[in-house]
Amino acid sequence: MPEKQKETGPTRRALLEGGAATTMLLVAGLPVGRSAVAAVAAEPTVTPMPTLPVMLNINARNIAVEVDPRTTLLDTLRNHLGLTGSKKGCDHGQCGACTVLVNGRRINACLSLAAMHEGDEITTIEGLAAGGELHPVQAAFIEHDGFQCGYCTPGQICSAVAMLREAKDGWPSHVSADVGAAPAALTDTEIRERMSGNLCRCAAYPNIIAAIRDAAERS
């Protein structure tokens, strides 16, 4: 019987064991050789983005803040200034939970950079009440139970405050029958159209409409 030849190269078992050991080193983040060390050393260093000093007028107060130029107004309000009334819902400008007032106009704070608003008058839900008295829209939302979980409510209220001013100034909507009327008649259909950018996942829409209609009649 011929004598079995001795294996001179690496065995299949040795190759498998070596591959497994290399994988473990990579998973653990350990270098596997000089080439790996050289590759890591050759990686470019990341320079941090410099911060930008911004003076914001929020709820009738001037507040100095330093932010990354890419920081949104919403993240500045919530994460830097502790004004957490404005909510982050979709973070894509589709739900309206982050609505605030800038120079009296409603905007989605998640789509606007804080650095863009130096010198503007910004009003959040925390700044609507005056002298211990709730804003009429806030009071109407409570009276008509215009909220359930309350997550969208700050944006709904801020949007309604601006919307009532728009209607009073005669701004037409997509469903307005008379585009030249001032003030615009706020039917339920008008209110639904004008508030369509603010979503309520609890579907409290009938009560929201009733609250806004009541606030419009009182103002």
Task: Give a summary of the structure in a few sentences.
Helices cover 36% and strands 11% of the residues. By secondary structure, it is an alpha+beta fold.
How would you describe this protein?
One of its GO terms (molecular function) is metal ion binding. The chain is of the alpha+beta class and 219 residues long. The chain folds into 2 domains: 49-126, Roll (Ubiquitin-like (UB roll)); 128-219, [2Fe-2S]-binding domain (DNA polymerase, domain 1, Orthogonal Bundle), CATH 1.10.150.120. The chain has 7 helices and 5 strands. Strand 1 (52-58) and strand 2 form a beta hairpin. Helix 4 (136-143) crosses helix 7 (205-218).
Structural class: alpha+beta
Q: Main sheet: which strands, in order across?
A: 2-1-5-3-4
CATH topology of the largest domain: DNA polymerase, domain 1
Whole-angstrom Rg = 29 Å
Average pLDDT, rounded to a whole number, is 88
Number of helices, counting only DSSP H or I runs of 4 residues or more: 7
Total domain modules: 2
Terminal residue distance = 109 Å
Helix content: 25-40%
Number of strands: 5
